Amino acid sequence: MSAAANSRMSGHADNRTSAAAAAAATGDRLLDAERRQVAQVCKDLSRSGLVVGTAGNVSIRVGDLVVISPSGVDYESMSAADVGVHDLQGAAVDAALEPSSELALHLAVYHNFAHTAVVHTHGPASTALSTLVETVPSSHYYTALFGGPVRVAPYATFGTDLLAENVVTALRERAAALMGNHGAVLVGGDITKVMKLVPYLEYVCDVQLRAMASGQPVRVLDDEEIAEVGRRLSGYGQSATAGATAGAVQQDES
Questions:
Q1: Average pLDDT over residues 197-207
Q2: Which of 90, 140, 168, 245 lies 20 to 30 Å (CA to CA) from residue 150?
Q3: Angle CA(77)–CA(54)–CA(196) in degrees, nearest 5?
Q4: Mean per-residue pLDDT for 45-58?
């Protein structure tokens, strides 16, 4: 290993030590807010039926650190203390448990894109569709939410570098990808916004499955229309007024 490489590795180790030591000195858990977010998102995914058992995983990047859900922990019993912090090389900075088996996938996303949040689901519709198509066509205009037709990454064994590479390729200029015979992954700059996209992806996949089941040709929107919808949706939405009726549902278009 070169002197420069040794210096970089030493620098990473120093940064890890400094971050953990600073948190310990104040009595605070390192990146506690983000760890709580990851634990809560895992619970939300489980309760919504978008993961089964301990499948799926969630991470948030903060600078050179990655907060990621642990491997094989029941979501309902998971707490912030179970969620670990690792560096961008995968080394543990502050982690009581082993990280998700898909750590390589999350790190690959962070190495290749500016995203700071990754959510991996095993939703029934998205997983089923991943066994049938190579790309989810623009059969619904919500496809625009993901930057265009959602690609399906070729199957590779979970936890492998090959799977991570396949997913990174499928995510180019997209906010989501399906993972062949596996599930789906969504990415973005904020975990809350990424989670808001999760049900839309599952809906788009469910619509496509139902349309295909009819046996009739499925009408698909062209790229120009998807681009126009994307422009319209980019500035869409507003906050409810203080006097709004409790439980009112905001429509997607009006």
A1: 98
A2: 90
A3: 90
A4: 95
Q: CA 102, CA 148: separation in Å to the nearest integer?
A: 25
| Alpha carbon distances (Å) from 113 to 69, 116, 181 | 20, 9, 24
Spatial CB neighbours of 50, under 8 Å, sequence gap ≥ 6 = 56, 121, 122, 123, 198, 202
Whether the Cβ atoms of residue 74 and residue 51 lie closer than 8 Å to each other: no
Instruction: Please say whether the beta carbons of 74 and 141 come within 8 A.
Output: no
Q: Which of 72, 68, 71 is nearest to 39 (CA)?
A: 68
CA pair distance 192, 161, nearest whole angstrom: 27
Under a CB-based contact definition with an 8 Å cutoff, are residues 179 and 186 in contact?
no
Length of the chain: 254
Tell me how far apart the terminal alpha carbons of the chain are, to the nearest angstrom: 61
Q: Can you spell out the DSSP letters for 45-61?
A: HHHTTSS-TT--EEEEE
Q: 3-state class of 79 per DSSP?
A: coil
Q: Is 102 a catalytic residue?
A: yes
Whether the CB-CB separation of 108 and 164 falls below 8 Å is answered with yes
The catalytic residue among 98, 102, 173, 253 is 102
Positive or negative, the Cα torsion across 70, 76, 78, 79? Answer: positive
Residue 138 main-chain phi, psi, to 5 deg: -80, 65
Structure tokens given for 65:
């650190």
- Which residues fall within 8 angstroms of residue 122, CB to CB, at 6 or more apart? 50, 51, 52, 55, 56, 182, 183, 184
User: Which tens digit of pLDDT belongs to each residue from 71-85?
Assistant: 999 999 999 999 999
